[in-house]
Specification:
Length: 368
């Protein structure tokens, strides 16, 4: 018990140290980047853009450093394919944490600018704000690098989607975008457009990474005997993430067909992924099965309320679908976490391709 307590204290001390180091780095780079005349908090020529870039770099660096310090030897006993999955996931998460810090700082700047209209911050004030944003991002990212659970990733995904969407709404060229659909936020060349499209692309990356972590947890629970089904699960999450990223890459005004294919493809792939996960995961528990059935039924009802009933616009459908996905994904990762041990489980299979197989029919019977 005392040993566990001392480890926790040491980890917390490191996180606090990382926060102060992040503050110092952010403030120092802020002094350099913001040198000159006072600047507004947000908008053209403001402190928000340089501060966001600095906070993103510091936050990404904090996560990478924490991962190296606390999980350096985790992949040593793993085969090459398992090590590669772990390292690719770490790189993807470094990008994601940097993106969260970037958009979080921009969104905070927009909120402050609306509350403090006309304020122009001198270089020292801008540097302090940059240091605060860097410290917050660095502390959270360093903590995540110590031991990141799959359920934390689900929370990160939807927090990031919320932050990015709020920033896009605050800076939207068309204030009546909600009468059409969320994709209208990505139209045009303004800050809100690129922020929304970038948010969707990084969200796709996070969905694929969550799939890799779900695969890790399933492997911890089921072992190498289930690698075939786990590979299907991870692959489908990856395809869902790629389709979601396509929504941001193919803008509605320039490639409407590809944009719509990506949007509906992401929804369809998520439904297929839900079915496959139910077949692969141990059990599955009745509550998880009922949640999946309920989420599927809710999606169908939401589609009918959009067309043909016309109760709300496409923006309303998209908001409802994201909410349903959040409930289902949160329930899924928490259920799998409860079924999986916390310890890392190296695979005895040298090649993933050799272990991949079709999901057995008896698994279908077990799920029903």
């Amino acid at each position: 018990m005392k040993a566990d307590t001392s480890v926790e204290v040491r980890r917390e001390s490191r996180a606090i140290g990382a926060a102060w180091a992040s503050f110092a780095a952010g403030a120092l780079f802020g002094l350099i980047a913001l040198a000159g005349d006072p600047r507004p908090i947000a908008g053209d020529g403001s402190i928000a853009l340089p501060a966001a870039g600095i906070a993103a770099i510091v936050t990404g660096g904090a996560f990478a450093l924490s991962t190296l310090l606390h999980r350096r030897g985790e992949t040593a006993p793993m085969p090459a394919w398992q090590t590669a999955v772990s390292r690719i996931s770490a790189v993807a998460l470094t990008i994601a944490f940097a993106a969260v810090a970037y958009l979080g700082t921009l969104t905070g700047g927009e909120v402050l600018a609306r509350g403090l209209q006309g304020l122009e911050a001198p270089v020292l004030g801008g540097a302090l704000l940059t240091g605060i944003a860097s410290a917050a991002g660095g502390w959270l990212a360093f903590q995540a690098g110590v031991e990141l659970a799959t359920r934390d990733l689900a929370t990160l995904l939807f927090a990031y989607l919320t932050i990015g969407t709020v920033f896009a709404m605050l800076t939207a060229d068309d204030p009546r975008w909600w009468e059409r659909h969320f994709s209208a936020l990505g139209a045009g060349d303004g800050a809100g457009a690129w922020a929304f499209n970038g948010t969707v692309v990084i969200a796709g990356l996070l969905v694929a990474t969550i799939g890799a972590y779900i695969g890790r947890d399933l492997h911890r629970a089921l072992g190498d005997r289930a690698l075939g089904g786990i590979a299907w699960t991870v692959g489908l999450f990856g395809l869902t993430g790629a389709a979601l990223a396509g929504v941001g890459i193919f803008r509605l005004e320039s490639a409407p067909v590809l944009h719509d294919l990506a949007a509906f493809g992401a929804l369809g792939l998520l439904c297929v992924t839900a079915v496959v996960v139910m077949l692969v995961m141990p059990g599955p528990p009745r509550a998880m099965l009922l949640t999946t059935i309920g989420a599927g039924a809710a999606i169908v009802v939401a589609l009918l309320l959009w067309r043909p009933l016309g109760v709300y616009s496409a923006a309303g459908l998209e908001a409802v679908a994201v909410g349903i996905a959040f409930v289902w994904l949160t329930t899924l990762v928490r259920t799998i976490a409860a079924l999986s041990p916390d310890r890392s489980r190296p695979s005895d299979v040298p090649s993933l391709l050799g272990a991949t197989r079709r999901i057995r029919p008896d698994r279908v019977g077990a799920a029903t």
